[in-house]
Amino acid sequence: MILPIYLYGTSVLRKKAEDITPDYPGLTGLVESMYETLKRSEGIGLAAPQVGLPVRLLVLDLDPLADIYPQYAGLRKTMINARIEETDGPSVSREEGCLSLPGIHEPVSRKEKIKVTYCDGNFVQHTEWFDGYMARVIQHEYDHLEGQLFIDHLSPIRKQLIKSKLNAILKGKVSCDYKVKGVK
């Protein structure tokens, strides 16, 4: 089932997400719906708060980037109760966008390498190091679990420059090719 993407200004995007257990109601269906929603919206990462649920669940599908990054061909990853344990390497600035902030793309500085502890879709715990673009995508989605958005990493001047775009989203003046839910 395709779920609506919650847009900037909805309170769930600013809530710190809570851990879930294997008996979370409808978990398997939710994960599949999140992957369907991600594919329909042409995204590569989606966190549960973006579909209105303040829980620590995110899904990644980097296969659409396989032309640029062949190592990501077929890569889909479910992360439950993820925690970034450690960061390493230099910070690298790169443009980011977000399904919850349509039409906004800004450079964000993030660490090159991260160590993450998480459970997969079967609640098997993993601790892994990720680097490069994968580390960036995880950090972006992880921010959603912490009640943050990529725009929170911007300088005050950059935030001022995108203020009219943010206000347009708040007023519902946004065009998306995917199902959305805005501020009421």
In short:
This protein has 184 residues and is of the alpha+beta class. Helices cover 23% and strands 29% of the residues.
Number of helices: 4
Trace the largest sheet across and list its strands: 2-3-4-5-6
Ends apart, CA distance between termini: 23 Å
Query: What is the molecular shape?
Result: globular
The proportion of residues forming helix, as a percent range, comes to: 10-25%
Number of strands: 7
Q: Can you walk through the features of this model?
A:
It contains 4 helices and 7 strands, in the order E-H-E-E-E-E-E-H-H-H-E. With about 180 residues, the chain is an alpha+beta fold. The strands form 2 sheets. The chain has a 5-stranded antiparallel β-sheet, with helices on both faces. Strands 1-7 form a two-stranded parallel ribbon. The radius of gyration is 16 Å and the shape is globular.
